[in-house]
Recover the amino acids of this structure.
């Protein structure tokens, strides 16, 4: 392939604006898949993803397109994850492209992730082609959306494509625009190899499959390569392209997108953002932008039944093979026994992993409320990071507690500005900026503690704006806050898994709410159970679960045996998610209760 007949692009969009559907249409139009082969939305492969309608795992595909100028082009479409948790991966896949289709829903207009993605694309100097999608919808208002794109992004929309990924309208036009507008890849074909790893997955037979974009030079089967971040060397056993299934071609040249396998056993040795070079003739400097991803959110994962500990360990190991950003280490909790402390990129990432552990590995888990990483300066002047509130040193030893803050962009109709501001204020946010767009929409910028965002901020935002607000955020750094540790005691014992670090001004209210909530969640036992919230040695709230004599069978008057059995089964079912702590049985909901308190 001539370099000037290659185009590398991605599609950026707010969730649900039609990215996956459009990708499918492009595949279909260029014959990358016959219609019969087309399952709905091939680019979203994981079941979970499909169910939730979100794109988690990036995929790439090569399309051959015979353009209006009579020449055939190689179009490489790189799919990007659509969620803020995966922003680093988004940035790496953008770095593998020269252009982007910006898809905006004709009825919804610009949303927070549209904007966040546009900024990222501009940072990478991508040529942006605006596409207004879903013009078939009765509520479509492409003129309004065009004005928004011009006003908010400052982009010329005279060549904007109007499309319907549903009907296929505008698809050819999009392909022509890709060929005409997006520059072909630069890069010297004779230089030493420099390839950007923008994704990977683990294959049990071939080892790690690295998804790469060749920036300079070429790579072929048999070549000795070096990963520049780790210095580790491997021999390329396979090189090929995505059609969209893997197709070996033996060699990849400058500007191309494809995969290599090199007997790499661990995704750690082949990280997203790393540069692959020729071990015999290495490049002098790696490609810019590589960084190690660090988890932002931690939680404890414990088997309900200790028998499943080894299964949980195996499952985490397997998931880790495919996901270098998942971090875990063994942890013991006085209340919950043996488990793992796991680190995630964000809340969505956490939910995905939890769900996969339960569904794919059939595990029954207790998950503790998530927390962020705190930086503690002790009275000895030592700085430590803690990923578990129960590890906070005693109050007398703590000089300063710092917590991570984010810069959040919230977009909503102007009628909801008051509600959004109120929510941000409640969550210790500080106002940074407000801008009006056309059609009565507003962009608010706030600085907020990350810990406040993980406490059901998104759900609150949605419910207080009737679903009309969208949110995007990025980490801005650590700042000191007046934080304290709130402990919960059940039957006189501190339940370490329920400890939270919280702002001083909110601690009393939260403590009271929490014990009330727990009283409702913990079933009655044969004895009385006191529930207390404490800060240091100070009890700030108390409730009691009264004793009861539990005898479900008494209701059956002895007669109906099947009814009896059903009742017993029901009771057993209810117990499944119970964790025995001391002599108290505590349901899973109790460990997450901290999250759902307003
Ligand atoms: P993504 O989250 O950006 O990948 O969005 P999807 O491609 O999953 O689309 C979200 C929803 O919008 C799906 O229900 C699609 O069927 C629907 N959709 C996508 N494109 C169009 C379109 O052009 N017209 C209409 N009416 N619906 C569309
Ligand atoms: Mg999608």
């Amino acid at each position: 392939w001539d370099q000037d007949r290659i185009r590398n692009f991605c599609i950026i969009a707010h969730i649900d604006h039609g990215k996956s559907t459009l990708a499918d249409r492009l595949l279909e139009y260029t014959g990358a898949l016959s219609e019969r082969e087309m399952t709905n939305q091939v680019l979203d492969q994981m079941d979970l993803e499909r169910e939730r309608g979100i794109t988690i795992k990036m995929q790439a595909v090569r399309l051959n397109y015979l353009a209006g100028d009579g020449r055939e082009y190689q179009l490489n479409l790189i799919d990007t994850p659509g969620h803020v948790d995966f922003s680093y991966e988004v940035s790496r896949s953008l770095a593998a492209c020269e252009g982007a289709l910006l898809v905006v829903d004709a009825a919804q207009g610009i949303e927070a992730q549209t904007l966040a993605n546009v900024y990222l694309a501009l940072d990478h100097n991508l040529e942006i082609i605006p596409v207004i999608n879903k013009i078939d919808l009765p509520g479509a208002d492409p003129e309004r959306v065009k004005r928004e794109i011009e006003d908010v992004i400052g982009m010329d929309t005279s060549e904007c494509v109007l499309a319907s990924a549903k009907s296929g309208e505008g698809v050819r036009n999009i392909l022509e625009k890709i060929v005409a507008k997006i520059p072909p890849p630069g890069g010297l074909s004779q230089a030493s190899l420099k390839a950007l790893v923008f994704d990977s997955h683990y294959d049990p037979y071939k080892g790690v499959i690295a998804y790469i974009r060749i920036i300079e030079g070429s790579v072929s089967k048999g070549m000795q390569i070096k990963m520049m971040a780790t210095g580790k060397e491997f021999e390329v056993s396979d090189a090929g392209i995505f059609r969209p299934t893997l197709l070996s071609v033996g060699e990849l040249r400058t500007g191309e997108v494809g995969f290599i396998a090199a007997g790499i056993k661990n995704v750690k040795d082949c990280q997203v953002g790393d540069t692959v070079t020729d071990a015999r003739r290495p490049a002098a400097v790696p490609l810019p932008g590589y960084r190690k991803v660090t988890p932002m959110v931690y939680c404890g994962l414990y088997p309900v039944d200790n028998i499943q500990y080894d299964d949980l360990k195996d499952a985490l190991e397997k998931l880790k093979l495919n996901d270098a950003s998942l971090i875990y280490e063994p942890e013991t909790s006085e209340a919950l026994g043996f488990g793992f402390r796991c680190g995630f990129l964000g809340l969505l990432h956490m939910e995905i992993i939890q769900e996969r552990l339960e569904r794919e590995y059939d595990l029954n888990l207790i998950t503790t409320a998530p927390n962020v990483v705190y930086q503690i300066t002790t009275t000895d002047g030592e700085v430590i990071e803690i990923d578990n509130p129960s590890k906070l040193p005693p109050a007398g030893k703590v000089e300063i507690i710092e917590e991570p803050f984010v810069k959040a962009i919230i977009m909503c109709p102007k009628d909801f500005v008051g509600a959004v501001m109120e929510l941000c204020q409640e969550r210790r946010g500080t106002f940074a900026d407000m801008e009006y767009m056309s059609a009565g929409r507003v962009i608010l910028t706030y600085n907020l503690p990350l810990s406040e965002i993980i406490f059901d901020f998104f759900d609150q935002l949605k419910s207080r704006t009737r679903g009309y607000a969208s949110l995007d955020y990025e980490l801005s750094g650590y700042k000191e806050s007046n934080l304290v540790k709130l402990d919960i005691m059940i039957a006189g014992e501190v339940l370490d898994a329920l400890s939270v670090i919280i702002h001083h001004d909110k601690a009393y209210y939260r403590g009271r709410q929490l014990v009330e909530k727990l009283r409702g969640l913990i079933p009655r036992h044969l004895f009385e159970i006191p529930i207390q919230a404490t800060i240091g040695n100070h009890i700030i709230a108390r409730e009691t679960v009264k004793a009861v004599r539990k005898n479900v069978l008494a209701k059956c008057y002895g007669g109906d045996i099947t009814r009896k059995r059903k009742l017993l089964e029901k009771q057993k079912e209810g117990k499944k998610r119970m964790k025995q702590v001391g002599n108290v049985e505590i349901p899973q909901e109790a460990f997450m209760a901290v999250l759902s308190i307003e």
In short: The pocket of guanosine-5'-diphosphate (ligand 1) is lined by residues 13, 15-21, 53, 55, 82, 133-134, 136-137, 164-166 (CB under 6 Å). The longest strand covers residues 398-413.
